[in-house]
Amino acid sequence: MLEKPIREMTTREKAARAYRLLSEDEAVRGQARAARTLLEKLEDQDMTVAVVGQFKRGKSALSNRILGEDVLPVGIVPITSAVTRVKYGERRVEVRYENGICEEIPESDLHRFISEQENRNNELGVAEVVLQAPSGFLKSGLTFVDTPGVGSFHKNNTEVAYDHMKESDAVIFLLSVDSPINQIEIDFLRNTRNFAARFYFAVNKIDTVSPADLGEYLKYCESVLEQLMGEKEIRIFPVSARTGEGVEELKAVIQADLGEQARSIMEMSTAKKLIDVIDRAVEQLDFYWKAMNMEYKELDRRFEEIEKTMTDIRARAAACEGGFHLHLNEYKMELSRRVKELFGMEYHYDIDMLKLGILDMDRQTFVQKTEELCSDLKQTLDRILLYREENAYTVCHRINAINRLLRELRRIRDSLAQDLSQT
């Protein structure tokens, strides 16, 4: 059965097509995984709503008001240092670390993991905190995300905010009357609009200014935001996270939109994100070409370096006394970093999520899995980089396959961009 032309495909069909194409080539395995995640989110209508903006605008306080519960730490000093995802359910808090460990903690300890004052520059290696709460706002299945603010002294917080804003389908972009829109917020908004499908602009701290001053500030914001977003009418919601003024109106509009227009919002969000995935795949293939066309002497040196890393990992595995699941995750992360450093390529592994107290694997299995990890990477690099390949047919076949992949990916990307331009 012939596949329909790309221009006639739905967003879901284009995402499925992109995933099939990417999954067929090991050089873009990370982008294949990202495309699969987008496809699954679209099929499940798994919508993410995030509060984003500059630090100390009151994001966590507003989040508590929207959720109807004081679930996130707030105060004069606290600055959020790690992403917190809030889902509907009975109250519980789980910390997920970058190395794959998951730990359930008392809610009273939450501040230790997401406050910059107690987890400076995320020294604890927290990937995210997942918090369940019986909030009516989340009952329809939304995931609510509180992000670190951009522009603070702590560079890590800005990097985390930029990484996670790419996952948002709808965004509450928070401004504040105590500061005009600045370049940091403008740059962040320009990036965010490339990923999220729906924006809700809120201005916080309205209880601190007079009605006249608030009116002037809102006019200023409307003018700037209309220019930035390319829209004639921008709706801004004046709110006070401290008193709750204006929050119910904001919530009502969000809930109505995400109920009545959920599918169209998810399709637009998926299209935007898929364009980014394809752009990164094209960039990845460009790095791949550069690596593949290195002189043999330079390529030899880099393969020797990755072999040294793998030899060191094998030695550490042989001497390891326990915590085998955790060490295997750490080896995956280390090998990914080295491939990026040496070949300019993203090489992704699935990091196993580990509950504290789970039964560890035995030593023999651990050593065997470590060996498989290293040997599989070496074979994959040999194969995709055609290392020392002398068969002309194999080389030509590989070049043609990459060119076909690039053409197909660009056709999907251009079709998605055209769809978005018509919405």
The averaged pLDDT comes out at 89
CATH superfamily name of the largest domain? P-loop containing nucleotide triphosphate hydrolases
Oligomer: single chain
- The structural domain count equals 2
CATH class of the largest domain: Alpha Beta
The portion of residues forming beta strands comes to 5-15%
User: Architecture of the largest domain in CATH?
Assistant: 3-Layer(aba) Sandwich
Helix and strand content put the structural class at: alpha/beta
Count of individual helical segments: 13
Give the proportion of residues in helices: 40-55%
Radius of gyration: 24 Å
Strand order of the largest sheet: 9-8-7-1-6-2-5-3-4-10
Distance between the termini: 31 Å
Could you name the CATH topology of the largest domain? Rossmann fold
Major β-sheet, in short?
10 strands, mixed
Got a strand count?
Answer: 10
Shape call? globular
The helix/strand order is: HHEHEEEHEEHEHEHEHHHHEHH
Low-pLDDT stretches are none
Question: Can you describe what's shown?
Answer:
With 423 residues, the chain is an alpha/beta fold. Helix content is 53%, strand content 13%. The chain has 13 helices and 10 strands. The chain has a 10-stranded mixed sheet with strand order 9-8-7-1-6-2-5-3-4-10, sandwiched between helices. The radius of gyration is 24 Å and the shape is globular. The relative contact order is 0.13. It comes from Hornefia porci. InterPro entries: Dynamin_N, P-loop_NTPase, TRAFAC_Dynamin-like_GTPase. It holds the Pfam family Dynamin_N. This is Dynamin N-terminal domain-containing protein.
